[in-house]
User: Fold this.
Amino acid sequence: MERAGGTALTVRAELGVEDDVDTLFAGVEAALAGRPLDVLVNNAAAAPAGPIGATMREEFDHLFAVNVRAPYLIIQRALNLLRDGGRVITISSVATRMANPSQTSFAMTKGAVETMSMTLANELGVRGITVNAVAPGATRTAANGAAFEAPGLAELIAGTTALDRLGEPDDVADVVAFLASDAARWITGQVIDASGGLFLGPRV
Assistant:
């Protein structure tokens, strides 16, 4: 981004705790130094797995604090900084379109931010701000890479994907970069699938 003439901001903040958004924006506003914010990407997430009977209330509350409350309040705080014609992009998940018993609470949070994106697109459109969500599928990242190390698991999941492989961070990042670009100026209120065609159906 900096090589292209832009400015990338790095501000450390732990989401899901008291005053998390205040801490984040103290750093953001200091770094911007009066300049407008062009693009906001909500990417932080918690993703515990387990059936409803094994989900602790504290875990459930933390999940919603990180995945739903934080992006909502971040967007709320960013509105005075975000320029007209800016971009808001929130990372969702294809879990919202599956019935995985181990991801009920996680899928609920991602369904919430998809609805948030659609309604905010309608609200903020008068300022030329587009609001979209991106839904990755099975994506190998530094945080979850170990989960794919079980023998045969990566191959099994890849076999359920139309493009026959696991996703990589760049696969999702490129979709986000497109939505942040002027080329996506007429796209808003949408959930963009970035799963490589996960679970489209059997190959017969």
